[in-house]
Amino acid sequence: MPSNAILEQKKVIVAELAADIKDSAAGVVVNYQGITVDSDTKMRKALREAGVKYVVMKNTLTGRACDEVGYGALKEHLNGMTAIAISKNDPVAAAKILKEYAEKIPSFEILAGYVDGGVIDAAGVNALAEIPSKEVLIAKFLGSIKSPLYNFAYGLQAIIDKQNGGSEEAAEAPAEA
After folding, report:
1. pLDDT at 1
2. Is residue 6 pLDDT above 60, yes or no?
3. pTM of the model
4. CA-based nearest residue to 85, from 31, 14, 10
5. Rounded to whole angstroms, how far apart are CA atoms 11 and 64?
6. Which of 162, 158, 99 is nearest to 131 (CA)?
7. Residue 14 pLDDT > 70
8. Which stretches of the chain are assigned E, i.e. beta strand?
9. Would you tell me the crossing angle of helices 93-104 and 122-130 to the nearest 10 degrees?
10. Is the CB of residue 79 less than 8 Å from the CB of residue 59?
11. Are the CB atoms for 76 and 19 separated by under 8 Å?
């Protein structure tokens, strides 16, 4: 009987992890060997603040969850001390934070990940980490479309001022009204 209970418990764990992976924007698999407790605590806090779920689980269970959602190719990277970081909304958040720690700690290694329905290797995760966040991209886009609009508005104002003769009377008339 106890073995059936354990098997059922594992099925629930795999189903929950599979649901988290399926509902996420991206994820990263790392080898967390060699990270100190202090660094691990800081990293987990940064991930949590970014809306990223960080899970340390048996490789076989993580592999089954990956199989369930179509990321079976991740299983080849599940060797040793691995963890998976699952980013619900921001596809670059987990990659950015984990890359920062991988650069500081030689034994902490990015192994692979997934984004847009496909599995990516460590180089793909590192490239993903270089992409600016959604907020930065939106700000850059808005800045690039705002500048021509302002220039257009200033140009129109210059034409209007010129058509009014540029005299002080024309400029003062609206102020008196």
Report:
1. 46
2. yes
3. 0.73
4. 31
5. 9
6. 99
7. yes
8. 26-31, 52-56, 82-87, 109-115, 118-121
9. 110
10. yes
11. no
Instruction: Give the whole-angstrom CA distance, residue 122 versus residue 134.
Output: 21
Across the beta sheet with 26-31, what order do the strands follow? 52-56, 82-87, 26-31, 109-115, 118-121
Tens of pLDDT, residues 50-83: 999 999 999 999 999 999 999 999 999 999 999 9
CA distances from 40 to 77, 103, 176 (A): 21, 14, 68
* pLDDT bucket at 118, cuts 50 / 70 / 90: very high
d(CA 86, CA 54): 6
Residue 153 pLDDT: 80
CA gap 107, 156 in Å, rounded: 61
